[in-house]
Amino acid sequence: MTKRIGIDLGGTKTEIILTHDDPLDIIHRKRVPTLQEKGYNHILQQLVELIKECLDLSDETPVIGVGIPGSISPETGLVRNANTTCLNGNPFKKDLERQIKLPVFMENDANCFALSEALLGAGRGHEIVLGLIMGTGMGGGVAKDRRVIQGRHGILGEFGHTSIDYNGRDCWCGAKGCLERYISGPAVEQQYVERCGTKLGLREIYERYQSKSDSIAMEVVEEFITFFGRGLANLITAFDPGIVVIGGGLSNIPLLYSKGADLARSQVFSDECTTPVVKNELGDSSGIFGAALLAGE
Ligand SMILES: [Zn+2]
Questions:
Q1: How many angstroms does the Cα of residue 179 sit away from the middle of ligand 1?
Q2: What is the mean pLDDT of residues 68-77?
Q3: CA of 206 to the centre of ligand 1 (A)
């Protein structure tokens, strides 16, 4: 029986857990602000301190897994695609290992989400689990046979930057029509403000949709669900998962699991599609449990 350290390095918060072999059996848990504006070395040192605290509390050497926003290039070992931008271009895994003198497993946070839901959450018992995180951005991961699939370039699951319209909306990544520009919180909010000039948060837009009190809100939410259905149909056709598990702030929108899922299933390239589309079971903690499991079961 091993002990585990799981770390979820987010843009605003960094969280660490020390657990028994079962990651849900937590010994110690701590959450601190990431303060990414202080730069790479601050984030690195903060993580070293948090890990040392856990090592002091553990009677054996734990396995260590870290979920990061972004991924590590298998070619160069450097972080890329992280919206905590100070991580980009740095050998974060290597630097961390050198300081704590222990091996570290490091993985994209959406992959950690897919892994934890596959092993401990809504995806239990399914051979292929497709996890989607929809919040300020959009990403995902695929777990197969209880492991994350990484792919040749370590980008498997970066669904947010697959285009569904080559003449579509501009994306920060340089491409046009990226899925993230249609089915994320900021995308919906931007559509609303562009159409009526009023800036509203996603929650309020959705409330207005539900109460049918605002025709622009209804239009924007309908459009969001349409794109969600189309995008998800593409992913189900590509991966044919046993289940799709949704995480992130937008996973609280019930319409995704009714109309959105129906739209997706009706457009899958199959005469019959029964793929369940469900909300995550582990909530905000999903990523950190997945990180704790990166070393294997
Ligand atoms: Zn993009």
A1: 7
A2: 94
A3: 25
Q: What is the pLDDT of residues 217-269, one digit of tens each?
A: 999 999 999 999 999 999 999 999 999 999 999 999 999 999 999 999 999 99
pLDDT reported for residue 11:
87
Ligand 1 centroid–CA 158 distance in Å is 9
For residue 83, what pLDDT is reported? 83
Q: Kindly provide the b/e burial profile for residues 63-84, where b requires at least 16 CB atoms within 10 angstroms of the residue's own CB.
A: bbbbbbbbbbeeeeeebbbbeb
Instruction: List all residues 6 or more positions away from 248 whose beta carbon is below 8 Å from its beta carbon.
Output: 132, 133, 134, 135, 138
Task: List the shell of residues around ion ligand 1, using CB closer than 5 Å.
Answer: 161, 171, 173, 175, 178
Distance from Cα 168 to the centre of ligand 1, integer Å: 11
Q: Which domains does the chain carry? A: 4-109+285-292 (3.30.420.40), 122-280 (3.30.420.40)
Rounded (5°) CA angle 114-277-182: 80
Once rounded to an integer, what is the mean pLDDT over residues 115-142?
96
- Report CA(290)–ligand 1 centroid distance (Å): 25
